[in-house]
Amino acid sequence: MKKLILSISVLSLLFASCNKAQDPFEISKQHVGLLTDSTRVKDLKSIFTNDSITEAFNDNGFMGVSKSIEVFDKAGKKLLILNPEYKSDTTAVVRSVQIIDPRFKTDKNITTSSTFKDINSNYKISRIDNLINSVVVTVNELNASFTIDKQELPANLRFDMNLDIEAMHIPDNAKIKYFFINW
Which N-terminal residues, if any, form the signal peptide (predicted)? Predict the structure, then answer.
């Protein structure tokens, strides 16, 4: 009986030590680094213990209900912009994460330094939206929206907002301006 308990204990320790630590810069459908699709505003300080979190204030000096929360690293470089349901509610869940820092990457190595070709080669594009100054490429597989500045497009596609832009219209070398993970 003692050998059985000892064996189970050793096996438990072995399995527990084999768990892969979460990469703080990995992006997937349910998480961005240590943030998950169920992270609450009140948990942000414990997640970003080595980083700085800023809370945006409105013109009157009060925290705005719909303002974003910015995360900076120790050196002062902006990493992420978080958008909770209601920022003033500490139990609110983070609904979208804007990726700023190129160290954050998907399992297929897509970062803010990637190009449209990288997205198109690695993921199925679900939708392309034509906005005033940008094109938004949506990838449902990641819950991601990639923004490309219209300056990256051919001149004949930049000004007509009624034009249905398709993947073949976007140059392979068009750079990602930024992207969001939406939950």
Answer: 1-21
- Name, in order, each residue with C-beta under 8 angstroms of 94's C-beta and a sequence gap of 6 or more: 35, 39, 40, 41, 44, 82, 83, 84, 183
- Domain with 137, as residue range(s), is 22-182
**Is residue 77 included in any domain, yes or no?**
yes
Residue 4 lies in a domain: no
Distances in whole angstroms, Cα of residue 132 to Cα of each of 16, 118, 175, 179:
51, 24, 17, 17
Q: Collapsing DSSP states into helix, strand and coil, what is residue 179? A: strand
H/E element, 82: strand 78-84
Question: Quick one: tokens of 151?
Answer: 């300056």
What six digits make up the tokens of 67?
Answer: 């303002």
What is the Cα Rg of the chain in Å?
21
Q: What is the mean pLDDT of the chain?
A: 85
Amino acid letter, 43: D
Task: State pLDDT tens for residues 96-113.
Answer: 999 999 999 999 999 999
Query: Does residue 13 belong to any structural domain of this protein?
Result: no
Q: Is the pTM of this model over 0.70?
A: yes
Neighbours of 172 (CB within 10 A): 10
17 CB-near residues (< 8 Å, 6+ apart):
none
Task: Sort strands 26-27 and 105-106 into parallel, antiparallel or unpaired.
Answer: parallel
The reply to whether 142 falls in a domain is: yes
